[in-house]
């Protein structure tokens, strides 16, 4: 697929997200924001990553040894936007909403897509195992924190999100483990 | 490179050996205290118990992982930097846990059962508990790195973990034998420990959060499930790593190959699954557990160890039978370990039966079974490996060693006997203070422990002088991939 198509794909995802009914529907629930909007914005950025010109990617690669800087950048920015304070702010303050809509695709999705293949398989394994165990921890937190962490959502929403996160951890664990059992061709980092 | 690998492996074995010896001394002190022969405060007893449990399981797993790594690298391309990182991270975590126990007086046992770390009744503070939990987390990460590397290397060489477990041969798609037994065992251990460490990381982080923010509580039953899923699988994996020694050494000694035939592969596949799902046998007393989980715990405990145990014990007997094998220290330890494994499983299976468990659980019967399984089974495999490692450059292995071997065998079994008998007279496990009726067994145990410690000192001394002081003449394991 050509780079342009990826760019169109990414833009398409973002366009769908901003459609007023979709936006309202997603932002009306905590699950919608945390497990709908944020991941889709990241996926859009991931697709944009494929659309970048080759020369630019090569230049970026000089700054992205083994994909680790890209991964760190993505994780740090994602962490910020997962904080309850940031979730609230992105719903109530237009400037921060804009920042979130720019940063999640450009500073999370895109660095991830540029770094993922360059990461050593062990680093990828760490991301997988950590994602599973920390999703469980976050799910448990949302279930057991006795107060509302977001002003915008009720405790019941928070609990529902907790349950979803634990379910998602189980699904991801099953999916990633199954993949290890399916015969593949070896998957080493591209340029090392 | 070969020299570095040998040096690093020797370092692993030496550090673990010293840790095991020191923890045996703590075990002796605990027995002396229970036998009222020394005045040891109850708080000190529980600190020692925590250290003994943590470092015995930790050191045995650490050494066993080195054994697995050492042999597995003959077949797949493993990363040496990861081997070194594992060493450094593990030691950092171990030092943190040691500080938490001996400086900050953490004494919540190696099972860190929720909510004990946060509710010490004034015995230790947040610093102690958090240092312990973070230390455990680091140890977990160090093992995680190693297993990610072994899984990666196995997938790269064989295509998938399923292939590493010999699925194509089991399903009849490929004729002939499966991957070498070492690869099969390493695949199994990598799988079960990736599961256990992921679960362990979750529950450790939850415990840490609860420690600093007590209003965020965990469901205690969920916590117990997660902790035992982690602890059981991890402790169990020690023997599955150690058994690689049997698969590697016996063929060399007997000049007969050990092949992965179909039954062997099926057995390892069964144990892979069962090891992950049997942990509820630690919760048989928790009446609120769903009944089906307890039944799984009982039924699969019967099935869990058996397949691998049977194919290995039977295979070992077959390969040795009329082979004219030379009985030196390494091969003797290997044989002892098979015996310890088989014998240790019997009281374990008895205890995994729900009706028996209601009587025996939390008595010293339980340490009785796992000391046999770990001490005579797993740890013998490690000593066997050490002697194999120094083969050729051993400095005068002689009577002292052989006598120590027999002393170790007889007295460790006797020590386990005193634990089992204490269980029979209803001595609970984990009690610092014993009733007079239980004391004779503790005193007998203490005497046996002294002798065991002397024997282990001989083994470690021999290893030390043969490998560290004398710059060993290279006697290198070179496989097709090394
Ligand atoms: C000289 C050898 C040893 C002696 C004297 C000894 C002694 C003891 C004693 C007295 C206890 C406490 C029992 C109770 O609950 O009252 C104990 C517990 C334990 N031992 Fe040993 N032990 C020895 C070797 C080993 C070995 C080789 C291992 C494993 C590799 C091991 C692993 C454990 C574990 C995991 C516990 C449970 C701690 C707990 O309940 O939290 N021990 N040992």
TrEMBL record, chain A:
Keyword Transmembrane helix on this protein?
yes
Has the keyword Transmembrane helix been applied to this entry?
yes
Segments crossing the lipid bilayer: 6-23, 30-52, 67-83, 95-116, 122-143, 164-182
Q: Identify the keywords attached in UniProt to this record, alphabetized.
A: Membrane, Transmembrane, Transmembrane helix
Q: Per its record, how is this protein called by name?
A: Transmembrane protein
The species is Geobacillus thermodenitrificans
């Amino acid at each position: 697929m050509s780079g342009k198509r990826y760019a169109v794909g990414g833009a398409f995802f973002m366009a769908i997200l901003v459609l007023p009914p979709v936006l309202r529907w997603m932002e009306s629930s905590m699950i919608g924001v945390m497990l709908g909007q944020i991941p889709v914005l990241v996926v859009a950025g991931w697709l944009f990553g494929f659309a970048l010109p080759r020369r630019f990617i090569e230049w970026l690669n000089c700054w992205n040894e083994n994909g680790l800087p890209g991964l760190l950048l993505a994780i740090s920015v994602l962490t910020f936007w997962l904080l309850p304070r940031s979730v609230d702010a992105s719903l109530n303050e237009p400037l921060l909403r804009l920042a979130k809509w720019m940063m999640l695709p450009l500073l999370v999705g895109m660095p991830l897509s540029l770094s993922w293949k360059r990461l050593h398989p062990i680093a990828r394994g760490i991301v997988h195992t950590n994602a599973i165990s920390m999703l469980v921890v976050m799910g448990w937190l949302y279930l057991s924190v006795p107060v509302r962490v977001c002003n915008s959502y009720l405790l019941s929403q928070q609990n529902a999100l907790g349950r979803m996160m634990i379910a998602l951890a189980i699904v991801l664990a099953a999916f990633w483990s199954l993949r290890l059992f399916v015969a593949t061709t070896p998957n080493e980092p591209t340029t090392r | 490179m070969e020299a570095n690998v040998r040096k690093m492996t020797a370092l692993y074995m030496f550090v673990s050996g010293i840790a095991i010896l020191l923890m045996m001394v703590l075990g002796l002190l605990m027995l002396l205290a229970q036998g009222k022969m020394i005045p040891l405060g109850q708080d000190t007893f529980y600190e020692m118990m925590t250290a003994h449990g943590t470092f015995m399981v930790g050191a045995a797993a650490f050494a066993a992982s080195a054994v697995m790594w050492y042999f597995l690298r003959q077949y797949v391309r493993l990363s040496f930097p990861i081997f070194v990182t594992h060493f450094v991270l593990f030691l950092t975590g171990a030092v943190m846990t040691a500080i938490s126990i001996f400086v900050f007086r953490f004494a919540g046992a190696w099972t860190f059962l929720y909510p004990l770390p946060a509710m010490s009744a004034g015995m230790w503070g947040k610093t102690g508990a958090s240092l312990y939990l973070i230390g455990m987390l680091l140890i977990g990460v160090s093992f995680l790195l190693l297993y990610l590397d072994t899984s990666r290397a196995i997938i790269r060489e064989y295509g998938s973990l399923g292939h590493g477990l010999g699925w194509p041969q089991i399903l009849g798609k490929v004729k002939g034998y499966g991957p070498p037994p070492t690869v099969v065992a390493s695949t199994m251990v990598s799988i079960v420990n990736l599961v256990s460490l992921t679960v362990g990381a979750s529950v450790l982080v939850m415990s840490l959060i609860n420690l600093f923010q007590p209003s965020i509580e965990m469901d205690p039953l969920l916590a117990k499930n997660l902790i035992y899923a982690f602890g059981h699988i991890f402790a169990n994996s020690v023997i599955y790593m150690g058994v690689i020694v049997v698969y590697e050494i016996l063929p060399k000694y007997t000049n007969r190959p050990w092949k992965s035939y179909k039954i062997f592969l099926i057995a390892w596949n069964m144990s892979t699954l069962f090891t992950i799902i049997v942990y509820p046998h630690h919760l048989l007393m928790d009446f609120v557990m769903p009944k089906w989980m307890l039944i799984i715990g009982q039924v699969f405990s019967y099935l869990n160890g058996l397949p691998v145990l049977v194919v290995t014990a039977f295979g070992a007997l077959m390969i040795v039978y009329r082979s004219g094998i030379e009985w030196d220290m390494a091969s003797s330890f290997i044989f002892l370990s098979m015996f310890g494994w088989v014998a240790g499983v019997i009281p374990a299976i008895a205890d995994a039966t729900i009706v028996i468990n209601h009587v025996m659980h939390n008595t010293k019967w339980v340490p009785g079974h796992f000391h046999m399984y770990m001490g005579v089974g797993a740890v013998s495999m490690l000593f066997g490996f050490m002697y194999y490692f120094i083969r050729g450059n051993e400095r005068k292995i002689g009577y002292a060693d052989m006598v120590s071997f027999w002393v170790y065998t007889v007295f460790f079994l006797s020590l386990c006997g005193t634990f089992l008998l204490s269980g029979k007279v209803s001595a609970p496990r984990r009690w610092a203070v014993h009733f007079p009726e239980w004391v004779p067994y503790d005193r007998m145990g203490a005497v046996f422990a002294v002798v065991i410690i002397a024997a282990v000192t001989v083994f470690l001394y021999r290893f030390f002088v043969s490998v560290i002081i004398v710059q060993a003449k290279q006697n290198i394991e070179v496989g097709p991939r090394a």
